[in-house]
Design a protein that fits this description.
alpha/beta, 7-stranded mixed sheet, 11 helices, 9 strands
C-alpha cells in the first residue's frame, strides 16, 4: 500500500466517506497553493469532512503546522513528502471575467444595482432552516443563465425556497410572465411579498414545506423551476421531484445547486442516476463553482469537529456549488404527488448538525 492509499484509508475510516488517492493528492496540491483551510476546501472540491480529517492527519504526522492566525503551512518534512509523491501545486485556469460561469452578470448592471439595494433589507439566515444565501453577483448570474437558455422571458417560474431572492431579481428583470415562491420561512415570505407589492412585480410568495404534496394548482403549471435543495439524497429526490411535478411537459427546465463540500462524487452519481434513470430527464449543464455563498454567522458553532484550524473564520466566500440545469424530454416519470417524510440535513457528508 503506497502512502496516498494509506492516508485515504485512514481518512475514510474516520469519516465513513469513501476517499481515493486522487482525493488526497488534491488536498495536498491545494495546500501547496494556499495556507487558508477554507480555501483548501473550495479548491479541492471534496466533502468538508474529508478535507478537515485529512488536514488534521497531516498535522499529526508533522507535515503541516498551524500558525497563530490559523494559517496552515507545510513543514520541511511535508514538502519532502509532496516532492516524493510527485504532487504539484494546483493551477487555476478559470476565466477572470465570468469566473467560469459562462455568463456575465455585468450585462445586467441596472438590475444588479436595484437588487443590491433591495437585498440589503433581507432577513438574516437562521440555522433552523439551514439557510445561507449567495452573493448578489451569483443571484443576478442565475437570471442571466436562465435568460440565456431561454427559460425566463415570457415564462412562468417556480422558486422552491428563496433564501437567495431569485424571485425578486427575476421580477426586477421584467422578463418572466409570473414568479411563484414556495417558502417555509414566514420572514422571507413577508419580505418578498412586500417588495413585490412596492415595485409592482409579478411575484407572489406563499408558505410551503416541500415534504407536503405540491398544491394541485401548481402541478403542470410552470415552464421553469429553480431551487437550492438540502443535500441528503432523500431531500434531493423529494425537492427535485416537486419541481419536476410543477413543469408543463417537454422542453421545460429545472435549475438547482449541488456542492462538493456536502456531497461526494458518489452522491453526485446516485443523484444523476435518479434524474436520468428514474425521472427520465436530461442533464444539459453542470457549471462548477457557479454559486458563491456569503459566509453565515452560525457556521463555526455548528461544526461537527473542533480541530484547531476550524476556530478561525473564513476569509473568503469558500462555500460554493455547481449549477445543474435539467430539461424534460416529455412526461416526467417516477413522480407521485403525496406527502413524503425525509431526512433534510443530516447524513455522513453533512457539514453541520453534528
Amino acid at each position: 500500500m503506497d502512502l496516498k492509499e494509506e492516508i485515504a484509508r485512514e481518512v475514510e475510516e474516520e469519516t465513513g466517506i469513501p476517499v481515493s488517492e486522487r482525493d488526497i493528492e488534491g488536498i495536498i496540491s491545494s495546500l501547496l497553493v494556499t495556507s487558508h483551510f477554507w480555501e483548501v476546501v473550495q479548491r479541492s472540491r471534496l466533502p468538508f469532512n474529508v478535507v478537515a480529517a485529512s488536514v488534521d492527519l497531516f498535522h499529526r504526522r508533522g507535515w503541516v503546522k498551524m500558525e497563530g492566525d490559523g494559517s496552515l503551512t507545510f513543514t520541511a518534512a511535508g514538502k519532502d513528502m509532496a516532492v516524493r509523491e510527485g504532487i504539484e501545486p494546483e493551477k487555476d485556469f478559470v476565466c477572470p471575467g465570468c469566473l467560469g460561469r459562462g455568463v456575465s452578470w455585468q450585462d445586467l448592471e441596472g438590475l444588479y444595482r436595484r437588487f443590491v439595494e433591495i437585498a440589503g433589507r433581507r432577513p438574516e439566515p437562521i440555522k433552523e432552516y439551514d439557510q445561507g444565501f449567495v452573493t448578489a453577483e451569483t443571484t443576478v448570474s442565475r437570471i442571466a443563465l436562465m435568460a440565456d437558455r431561454g427559460d425566463l422571458a415570457g415564462k412562468r417560474l417556480l422558486v422552491l425556497g428563496d433564501d437567495d431572492l431569485v424571485s425578486l431579481a427575476a421580477g426586477l428583470s421584467g422578463m418572466p410572465e409570473e414568479v411563484v415562491v414556495l417558502e417555509i420561512d414566514d420572514r422571507l415570505i413577508d419580505f418578498i411579498n412586500e417588495v413585490a407589492e412596492e415595485n409592482r412585480l409579478p411575484v407572489k410568495a406563499r408558505r410551503y414545506d416541500f415534504r407536503q404534496k405540491l398544491p394541485e394548482e401548481y402541478v403542470g403549471s410552470f415552464h421553469t423551476f429553480t431551487t437550492d435543495p438540502p443535500e441528503t439524497l432523500e431531500a434531493l429526490e423529494v425537492c427535485l421531484g416537486r419541481g419536476l411535478l410543477s413543469l408543463r411537459g417537454e422542453g421545460c427546465a429545472g435549475y438547482f445547486g449541488l456542492t462538493h463540500a456536502e456531497s461526494s462524487l458518489r452522491k453526485w452519481n446516485e443523484l444523476q442516476q435518479l434524474l436520468v434513470g428514474k425521472f427520465k430527464v436530461t442533464i444539459t449543464d453542470i457549471i462548477e463553482d457557479f454559486n458563491h455563498y456569503v459566509n453565515w454567522d452560525y457556521l463555526l458553532p455548528s461544526l461537527k469537529k473542533t480541530f484547531p484550524f476550524l476556530k478561525f473564520p473564513p476569509r473568503i466566500n469558500w462555500y460554493r456549488s455547481a449549477m445543474y440545469r435539467i430539461q424534460t424530454l416529455g412526461q416526467v416519470e417516477g413522480l407521485r404527488n403525496e406527502a413524503a417524510e425525509c431526512e433534510l440535513y443530516v447524513d455522513k457528508e453533512a457539514l453541520i448538525y453534528g
